[in-house]
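During the second half of the funding period, the structural biology subgroup turned its attention to how the target accommodates small molecules. The most pressing case was iron/sulfur cluster, which had performed well in the primary screen but for which no bound structure existed. We therefore specified the complex as follows and requested a full 3D prediction, including the ligand pose.
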Amino acid sequence: MEIKSQQSSMNIDLHEGRLIEELKRSSCEMMPEPSEWLDEEIKRNIIVSTVDKLLNWGRKTSLWTETAFTACCTFEFISLSSPRFDIARFGMEVLRSSPRHADLIITAGTLTWKMAPQIKRIYDQMAEPKWVIAMGSCGISGGIFADSYSVVPGYNRILPVDVYIPGCPPRPEALMAGIERLRKKIEKKSFTKVD
Amino acid sequence: MTTTMKGKQVFDMLKGELASAIVEVQDECLVVKPAKLTEVAGFIKHTQGLEFDYLSSATGIDYPDYFEVVYLFYSLEKNHRFTLRIRCADKADPVAPSLTCLWMGADLQEREIYDLLGIKFSGHPLLKRIFMWEGFEGHPLRKDFKNGF
Amino acid sequence: MVFKTEPFILNLGPIHPSTHGVFRMRVVVDGEVITDIEPVFGYLHRGIEKLAENKTYKQIIPLTDRMDYVAAMNNNLAYAITVEKLAGIEVPERAEYIRVIMSELQRIVSHLIGIGSFFNDMGTFFTPFVYMFTGKEKITDLLEMVSGQRLLHNYMRFGGVSGDLPPEFLPALRKFLREMPPEIDMYDRLLKENEIVLARSKNVGILTREMAINASASGPVLRASGVKRDMRKADPYSVYDRFDFDVPVACNGDCYDRYQVRIEEMRQSIRIIEQAAAGIPEGEVINPVPLRFQPPAGEVYGFIEGSKGELGFHIVSDGSARPYRLHVRAPSLINLTALKNMLTGWKVADVMVIFGSIDICLGEVDR
Ligand code: SF4
């Protein structure tokens, strides 16, 4: 029994190692910022844009976040959801541990290569439409750990990031400002556009 | 106040064969032959008057000519501390005996040294990488490892 | 009829609501009972020890902040003490008192978060946690007042602290000292005799005295198992020998005892802060080191009693401006050694309670 579980756990580790190496090889480039919202507004007609408005209003006022709490920035994020800063004002107090319920992932903290496949998998499991906020300098570029052998220099290597919030850690107020930006961005997105 | 035992003091208590296991007597520590580490450690754990029952930390250091592992022991009863060192001269394939048979607390620390410095601990129950993933090349804390993505 | 069950591997984490970050366990369960566990580390391994080899001594202070990120002051203090030991730097009296106040405030923060998330793991979803966070925010304000940062303070320097206390700090601290003890009593009253808490944590996850010593546990985990060991008393550093406080111990070594020890420690911390605030002398706060700081060659081990246990730094210096090797004795990592023995034999539902009662910080486990 003992031996069997040790052997199989080694297999799991080897498999995990291969996944990490693969992801590491395939993510040398930064992903561009998703920028559909920059599209010309002329293409939409009046009725559709009203539908857009309604949909976007629904989306932006009830962003459910996935918990991707990796490092120190987490505590500022939790502070934001605690009574003092009260994230509930934005309809965001629901923290989901299941990616299938969430439409926003706030990546609070340093991302290591060992962690990268899990985060990518969580992102892939989230239902469209989905957004990413990279929180903290680690999330932007690796921050203080940028030249480390095990740290991914920025979430944008593996995920398309919508909003970056600088700071180490960003204060809850900064995080609020970032969320505000994201809501503006959501407003401009057109889901009903026909090309 | 925790007192630090002098290397000489402990060396005088070691008798016969164990005394020959000591490579060097330093002011506050003893340098032990790697092969004899478990015996010396067992001795200082069980001998009256020493009773080092608490292994506080184990550190690996990469020197140009050898790898060194430093063990820091405390005695909770007597409230004193002592350091043992071993030197692995073989830089290509360093091997050291594991202390997990005496102190369970050595378990994760030895795995850490194995992962980051590549010193193999013979007799460790589950010696595999702890921080880096399987398939990662090299040992990060060695001096010849180049940092960076 | 007898059912035969087959063991299978259950994976918990690395992203799991109650693993305090990115910890992962592979649990082998037979039915509901745990037969074996294997913790998997490294999901937050940032290579701090390697990065430190390429930074000057002063540049490492912010790196130490990021290890145990709920107790940044304590990490700063441990590192500063170690380097001072190596270079033989004197610290002015006032700075020592400030350090003690900061360190104890930070210990309260860490224990509040530890207790809050422990109850979170037990299933009282977020209610105690939110209470604890209210208390934490008060201390955060105090620490921000002196250091300018809410979470990672970067406040200690070699030979003192980076700046003097602002004039409004001591009145605010006194107000806090008046408000906090009743608050701690309230938490304790709410939680101590709660039937569910008792049922889920009393006699659960027992760590015996022998096992705790053998597995090098430290801090509240060790003291809950009946070993009266606190580095502040055993080998006083800074000016801890001038204050009068008790070291709380418990005897059963179960989850409930670990919780009780933490609550009691917060009360003792308040006592220390009261004495330090009353006796704080005037004077310099830093004994500056030269800009190109190069400690002499040598090897040194410095430690403090951090909030999670004995936090030690082992520095090897070759006389240059950068350390040759820097090793951290991380209490969070070492306290997890006995995890396997504590979990085996319990049910799956107890995993998170036992794990939560150890109170680790992933930044320090993986570094
Ligand atoms: S940005 Fe700073 S606070 Fe945030 S995870 Fe990175 S090091 Fe920690």
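Two results from this model are relevant to the next phase. Helices of chain B lie at 7-13, 16-19, 37-46, 106-117. The first strand of chain B starts at residue 3 and ends at 4.
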